[in-house]
Amino acid sequence: MSSETLMTEERLIRQATDVLIENLGITEATRFLTLSREGRPESVERHRAWQRDLDKEVFFAEIFGAD
Q1: Among 4, 26, 29, 37, which residue's beta carbon has the most beta carbons within 10 A?
Q2: Total structural domains in the chain?
Q3: Which residues contact 20 (CB under 8 A, 6 or more apart)?
């Protein structure tokens, strides 16, 4: 069994960008790295947005039933 050593973040980033540039060219690699990260919000952000808009009384009535 062999042990695996993790690269430093700096080395990982350097190797990854070198591979992108080598395979895509500088223009397409740069374009890839600057692509918009739109889409689904991260789960904590999504939960906080849900909580921000939550009406506690309405929520409790839906869950526990109105008295």
Answers
A1: 29
A2: 1
A3: 29, 32, 33
Is there a domain that residue 4 lies in?
no
- Cα–Cα distance measured from residue 23 to residue 16, given in angstroms and rounded to the nearest whole number: 11
CB 26 within 8 A of CB 17: no
Query: Does 2 fall in a domain?
Result: no
Query: Chunked in runs of 10, what are the mean pLDDT values of the chain (67 residues)?
Result: 79 95 95 79 85 90 80
Phi-psi region of 58 (alpha: psi -120 to 50; beta: other; left: phi over 0): alpha
Q: What is the pTM of this model?
A: 0.47
Q: Is residue 29 part of a domain?
A: yes
CB contact at 8 A, 20 and 32: yes
